[in-house]
Amino acid sequence: MSFDFDAGKYAPYVWGAYAVSALILGGLVADTLARARRWRRAARPDASTETAP
Amino acid sequence: MIPALANPDRFMAFSRWAAPLLGALAALLLAAGLVLDFTAPPDARQGYAVHIMFIHVPAAWMSLFVYACLGGASFFSLVFRHALARAAARAAAPLGAGVTAAALITGSLWGKPTWGAWWVWGDPRLTSVLVLFLLYTAYMALDAAIEDEARAAPATAILALVGLINLPIVHYSVVWWRSLHQGPSVLRAGGPSLPPVYLTPLLIMGLAYLTGFGALWLVRIRGEVWRRRAAVMAMRAAA
Question: Is the pLDDT confidence value at A47 over 70?
């Protein structure tokens, strides 16, 4: 088993596709975690004394 | 299992351990899938561009699966007026829009070296997937536009249910009409036509996307539950 990263003339298409996928999926993970954290903080019983999200 | 999880407290207890478990499983499957992906030989006809398949096809599968989840949750939200079903529908929409955008862009990047075109207007598969993306964005726009939750829930649910008609159109578009897009090579009668060296990493990547969606969906639904609790607290504080 050996890795092959030599995309040759297809490099812009292949690595472009992987970069876009990583950006979108990474963005979804970051957005999901940030929203959940924000609303969990807002729903804490002592949250009424804090700044609203 | 689903009726038991309809109780928000039970759902929160379940998702507390299920979400990180699914996330860890997704990370492991993604790592295994990528190893098999980049050790697979170039295709005789497509060359190295075949590697785009391992991220394009799972994103395309998920674009349909997530919409089916959105439609199912919308049905329960509309018929039973269940708050958790409404939260599940709201949580699915941005995830579906994301994977559909990934499918469209990676498909375009795959189309250029293999078909010689980034995009072909009027192609039934490409157009129906674009419609799917627009349905996700329309759902989110309608949801954001209606402030009253009592009106937003049925309106968005009806939109999501009407959009379900697009799912068989996307899947069978390459069978019903002449399309530049290739026909089904995995989910087809007679079994997959791909050789194992491509089929195995593709299925593992598909499972990685599926478990990853499961983890993110659960976390987003948890966020929705907390958002509603925060809104109730704010109303009580204002009263």
Answer: no
